[in-house]
Amino acid sequence: MAEQADNRKSAAQNIGDTPGFSEAISEAFDEEEARRAKMAGRTETLATIVLALAAVATAWSAYQSTRWNGEMSEDYNQAGAYRTESVRASNEANEQTAVAVTLTADWLTAELSGNRDLADALRVRMPPNLDAAMTRWLGAWQPGQPLPPGDPFTQGGYTTPETDRAAVLERQAEATFAEGRDANQYSDNYVLTGVVFAMGLFFAGVASRFSHPSNAVRMVYAAAIMLAIGCVLLLVQPKDVGI
User: Fold this and answer.
1) Is the whole-model pTM more than 0.85?
2) Is 69 exposed, middle or buried (0-12, 13-18, 19+ CB in 10 A)?
3) Residue ranges of domains in the chain
4) pLDDT tens for each residue of 88-131
5) Torsion-angle region of 40 (φ positive above 0: left; ψ -120 to 50: alpha; else: beta)
6) CB count, 10 Å around CB of 233?
7) Which phi-psi region, left, alpha or beta, contains residue 208 (left: φ > 0; alpha: ψ -120 to 50)?
8) CA-CA distances (angstroms) from residue 128 to 100, 124, 136, 186?
């Protein structure tokens, strides 16, 4: 065994003493160091590009999230204003309808009691929309004849301008509220997009902490993937420039 060890040692010394071997080893080391330095330079350049793009995209995502959040608040406030106006118009319509019911009841009482003067006076004082409903309800009816079935509210199609206005305002409130809900979703989507870009920033930032080039390259690739995913999310989402 001692003889074999001495033989291996002698062979190693002979190889080390071979002309040009040390130079070859030195050149191989130099080439490896140059390759690693070149890879590190490319990795650093790519990481810098990813960092710059991700930083800009993150800022844009934050801006868009803020813009859409403002749109949401504005839409919700406008929807609330529309609903308030709708309730006010509905209350006015109810008051007008109550007056119309009273006039109609008084007219029926006067007509059925044969008080034509009072009935005519009440008919003249009816607002246009009630008078039109009375005309549609009575049709060809003449005083002294039995009244047609129903009343001007169910058979004459009575309505008030405020009723129509209340319905329009309620539809506007619903549509504006839906726009606000969409704006809120867009804002949340941009927050998520910003998180994706932040992950890209993280991977690109830690790439330089790895001593082995291949590990750094993997981090940069991961950062580039996050950047690509975030860019796709940016492209498919609506924009609110605010200009």
Assistant:
1) no
2) middle
3) 43-236
4) 999 999 999 999 999 999 998 988 888 888 888 988 899 999 98
5) alpha
6) 18
7) alpha
8) 11, 9, 12, 48
